[in-house]
Amino acid sequence: MPEMPEIQAHAERLTEQFAGRTLTKFTPFNFTALKTAVPAPDVAYSHPLLEVDRRGKYLLLRFDPAVFVVHLMQGGRLVPDDKLSLKPRGGQARFTFDPVERPDGSLDETALLLTEQGKERRAGVWCLTPEDALTTPPLVKLGPEAATVTDDELAQLFAANSMRVHGFLRDQRMVAGIGRRLANEVCHRARISPFANTRKLGADGAAAVAAAMRSCIAESLEFERERADMSSSKDRPSAMHSRTGDPCPDCGDTVRAVSYSGYTVNYCPTCQTGGKVLADNTTSKFLK
Ligand SMILES: [Zn+2]
User: Fold this and answer.
1) CA of residue 253 to ligand 1 center, whole Å
2) How far apart are CA 184 and CA 261, in angstroms?
């Protein structure tokens, strides 16, 4: 799933390409694509797109009368669409804009298409008034932005929520924008075990995690801004994530894994757990 840096860089690219274009139509291609009934999307028709913004892992298409909040989930993408076919493959919804003339005189009719691969159909669009966008679902549930949460704010959240730090980082209600890859990278950068309890980390632990979030996100954002389109997870640089068996780039120890049904926790024993190798759920049953 794309995380904050991928979504942020994508929002910036879409703003560059689409800001100022006038919305003429919003077309959902199935009944799950639009998650809201009021206001109707047509309140934004004939209004220019102000910008594509971001909150957590959500894209926000801002028009004066309405904000379209888009969640890509696992396999969703919001992509420029110049084919404009009636039934686009994997199509969930389309934003159609007034054609604009290119410098060479040709007409640019490019739309924005929300696609989702697979059968899950979990990507979606919420149409909200600008006043309600931040105070109603889905955005109201989000914690502070991972890139800008202060050391003190994080220390307070750690003290109030007794969780494994890796799970805390992936929980969008705690901090918004981090997923499986960055959770692995941040714990390693902070030199903290992914299984450390947030309540026991204290102010120093919170400061280390907050600093690691800022630097890991800044690096990923720099990488992502160099690209013409959103990277896939295998393209993204990592020290720990998906590196099981590789040497740690900082100390040379072997990167270890603890696997769960939906994700894998990667860590370096020397950097993070005082050299202790934790039991891997997937392999330990064969060692009994
Ligand atoms: Zn290491």
Assistant:
1) 5
2) 16
Using an 8 Å Cβ cutoff, are 48 and 67 in contact?
no
Distance CA 34, CA 27 (A): 9
- Contact between 255 and 238 (Cβ < 8 Å): no
Q: Which residues contact 228 (CB under 8 A, 6 or more apart)?
A: 13
Reported as a single tens digit per residue, the pLDDT across 115-161 is 998 777 789 999 999 999 999 999 999 999 999 999 999 999 999 99
Other Cβ atoms closer than 10 A to 40: 13
Interatomic CA distance for residues 180 and 125, integer angstroms: 23
pTM score, two decimals? 0.93
Strands 124-128 and 23-28: unpaired
Pairing of strands 111-116, 76-81: antiparallel
The first and second tokens of residue 178, run together, are 């981090």
Q: How far is the CA of 183 from the centre of ligand 1 (A)?
A: 16
CA of 275 to the centre of ligand 1 (A): 9
Distance from residue 239's CA to the centre of ligand 1 (Å): 9
